Amino acid sequence: MSEREPTSEYSGTEQPAFRVREATPEDNAALLALDRQCVVAAATPVAFDRSPDFFARSKPYSHWRTYVAEEGSRLIGVGAMALKRVLVGGRSVEAAYFYDLRVAPEFRRLGVAKAVGNTLRAYTRSLHPAISYSLVMEGNVASLSFVQGRGSRPLRSCALHLIPVEGITDSQAASGRLNVLGAAEVESVLHLARGAHPDHDLFPFPDVDSIRDRLRRLSGPGLEGLYGWAAGGQLAGCFGLWDYSPVMRMRLLQAVGDWTWAAGRDVHLVFLTPLGFRDGRALADVVKMAATRLQQAPTPGAVRVLALTHDQADPAYAALDQFRPIRMGFTLFGLELDGAGDLSFGSRPVYVDPADL
User: Fold this and answer.
1) Domain 160-329: which CATH class?
2) Fewest 10 Å CB contacts: which of 28, 107, 127, 196?
3) Is 234 helix (H, G, I), strand (E, B) or coil?
4) pTM of the entire structure?
């Protein structure tokens, strides 16, 4: 994060007096408390816990900024942005990603979200990104309205697939070919990941240094290794195992669909990232191998769930249907900014970066 900026003051007859300022590490406890108040729906069967570090979600990014709204000594709102270099239409451009917008329930519809959003937007413009984007989960009506009201347009329908590890049958022949990948294989990993997502916008690894930087940042918050296997003398599939529980833990409060066995248990999401494969069959092998690897080191009392994100229009991910995943949908909203040129952002499939969730 860069050096702090002056605060902004907001007041009026129809809203409380509050200020917006950059967040500091000392805000961590208050932000965790605010996050627990802000669920998408009151009847949600899922409880999330971001302790002990609210800021852990942002640390995979090389540049990010969080702002809070404060009334007196109480935090009543928060929002964040990250600056990323991504590929759009084959061009490497700077993109601003907006996330973590929260407002305490009793302070909603009083201009808090707008004030935080305006401060984030002003800071973002000083960085001169070519595009901005955000992700909104299905059913989050308030966020949908807020994002569209600020000029962003819906671009792509995306999905998060959740696959319980213990429900996947071991593919012994495939798992026997799995190898641990080291620094020397990173370039091959990048080549395979890019080949699996050809012409996808928002691909976050324009060069080898960018993927090395991401792996280095994930090594603190839960990266459990980078794996792959070869066929015909070339890398056929690869995946990183990112245990997301140091960033956010999840507990199912009641049975959901086929997940009756998981009610009341902690769920550890393990994202497959970076992810590369030659075709849908290789993607299915990735899932089987990742599950086998995790089954070798079970987590007592918790359920490990493989998490994969993708553009719903990407045919390669149809291979996941055989695992009967739980699907959560969301929409990617985007906006081309001044100086973007003719990017046609969103006319192609997008790469959904697990770090953005």
Assistant:
1) alpha beta
2) 127
3) strand
4) 0.91
Portions of the chain given CATH number 3.40.630.30 = 8-158, 160-329
Q: What is the mean pLDDT of residues 272-289?
A: 93
Contact 24, 31 (CB under 8 A): no
Question: What are the two backbone dihedrals, phi and then psi, of residue 316, each rounded to the nearest 5 degrees?
Answer: -60, -30
For helices 208-218 and 186-196, the axis angle rounded to 10 degrees is 100
Q: Which CATH number fits domain 8-158: 3.20.10.10, 3.40.630.30, 3.20.20.20, 2.40.170.10?
A: 3.40.630.30
Spatial separation of the C-alpha atoms in residues 81 and 66, rounded to whole Å: 7
pLDDT tens track for 327-341: 889 999 999 987 677
Structure tokens that stand for 229 in this block: 């296997």
Return the HEC string of 284-313. Answer: HHHHHHHHHHHHCCCCCCEEEEEEEEEECC
Residue % of the chain over a pLDDT of 70: 90
